[in-house]
Amino acid sequence: MHGGERMNSTEIEQSKDPGNRKFGAIVGLCLGAAVFLSFMSGHGGRGIAAAVTIGALLLAVRSCWKLRNQTWFWVAVGFWVALHLSLVLFIPWPNMFYVGMNYALLPVLAVDYGLVYGSFKLLEKMMPGAPGSRS
Question: Is residue 2 one of the residues assigned to a domain?
Answer without folding.
Answer: no
